[in-house]
Amino acid sequence: MRFITSFITVLLLAVSALALNVNIARTSSEVQTATKPKPPKVCDSKYNKADLAQKQYEAVADFADLFVNKHDVLTAFNRWVPGEYKQHNPFSAQGRDAAIKFLSDSFKSGTKTSKLTFFAGQGYGMQHFKMSSGNTTFAVVDYFKFKGTCIVEHWDVLQTITGTELNPIAFF
């Protein structure tokens, strides 16, 4: 009987501590969200402060959210690709305006996206996501080069997902 009483007491204490931690974590994230700085209206190609890597990460995070999650190509490009833009996609013409048209038209035709991940480091950024267009599904990687906090160059790789891959976790 003593064992059961002790076990229940310890269990109740653990659950109480967990509930307190969850509440603290939620409150902490709410505070973080409330104080999170808004992204700039336009990137800065001359930005070269000690926190450049963090700013580039924030740029990729915002660009990826606008582009992949919200399909807001124009805002993503206006904020993070304001000028110089080298395009290595073989299916798109060179330059910023051609990329905006190409990508906007793709979303207008019903392209869907999901499973976004991204990172940045050493002057480059990457976003990886799933894209479905018509009857075809792709795993996509966009690779970006930065100048300051501006995206100035882009490469991409697409792999067709057939659903018959040998490896069940081949792409994600």
UniProtKB/TrEMBL annotation:
Xref: Gene3D superfamilies: 3.10.450.50
Check the record and name the InterPro entries matching this protein.
NTF2-like_dom_sf (IPR032710)
Residues annotated as transmembrane: none
Q: Does the keyword Manganese apply?
A: no
Is the keyword Signal assigned to this protein?
Answer: yes
Keywords, comma-separated and alphabetical: Signal
Tell me which positions the record assigns to the signal sequence. Answer: 1-19
The protein's name is SnoaL-like domain-containing protein
Q: Taxonomy-wise, where does this protein's organism fall, top ranks first?
A: Eukaryota, Fungi, Dikarya, Basidiomycota, Agaricomycotina
